[in-house]
TrEMBL record:
Highest taxon above the source species: Eukaryota
Database matches in InterPro entries: HAD-like_sf (IPR036412), HAD_sf (IPR023214), P_typ_ATPase (IPR001757)
Keyword Methyltransferase: no
Name this polypeptide is given: Uncharacterized protein
Sorted UniProt keywords: Membrane, Metal-binding, Transmembrane, Transmembrane helix
Residue stretches spanning the membrane: 284-309, 315-334
A GO CC term assigned to this protein in UniProt: membrane
GO terms of molecular function: ATP binding; ATP hydrolysis activity; metal ion binding
Amino acid sequence: MVIFIASGVAAERGVIFKSAGSIEIAYKTSHVVFDKTSTITEGKLTAAREWHSGSDQNATQSLLLGLVGSIKHPVSAAVVRHLKAQGVTPSQVSDPKTLTVEGTAKGTGLTLQAGTLLQMRSRTFCFTIGGSVAAIFGLEDSVRPDAASTIKILLDRGISVHIISGDDDGAVRSVAAQLNIAETNVRPRCTPADKQAYIQDLLEGPASPNHTNAESKKTEKPVVIFCGDGTNDSIALAQATIGVHMNEGGTDVARSAADVVLMRPNLGGIPTAITVSRKSIQRVVFNFSWSFVYNLFAILLAAGAFVNARIPPEFAGLGELVSVLPVIVAAMLLRWSKI
């Protein structure tokens, strides 16, 4: 009953648990790992700067739009919006291949390639034709308004916070610095396989060094939450103890791989999920403790251990109600608990 009510309480706050197992273990969280784009940041990239190497800018833009027009990653989508706003029409490209944000294709005897280029503190999208740089776009994004407060709450609870991202080193570390995340917990330029490996390393390592309970570090395995939204996060979502999906603009593949879905674009759903789990387990422990004490007393009473104690027959039927009622009340009070 407690788990059932807890799932409803979480749902009212925009947090959907897919299974009872996630509720039962979330309170043990030792690490929370975030993807950056569209998770820590709003994912609404804009092309702030644009540079072209040749004189035929229109042809370059047309080829680029034809190459990345169908890619859903926020970086490519930002470039596509920028080009369409200028009235660019896509060219037909042959043999296109896509790997997350990057795209390659064969066209007019040349190889077209688009993807990110390393640059300090910003993300740069680079387009090459035949191995030569044809265009560069400078992209900007902003941190979610609730990111700083959410991460502060997690750190105050002794939970280790990490960022892993496929973004450039400077851009990722700049965001981490804004949010007071330790540099040792930042991994830029990660492929989906790199994200999976990082999560696995955390699962096999010690619990968070920030935990105050030293004994729990020795006996409990780390519980890792990973929060992401893209298809390239799917492996990490499945690898983590609890995968959390940001539903706003996320992909169906990532959603299906996650254990928890945040229905609102609010990172505060992660501390909420942990709090719901903790208060649920407290009530489960209380219910089991009450049942044990009550039934032990009842067995001893029935066995005659208390010679002078008697229950009038007309009140004997209340025994079951007295046993169950505190359990029901403890579960129902979760709805009005401060979460």
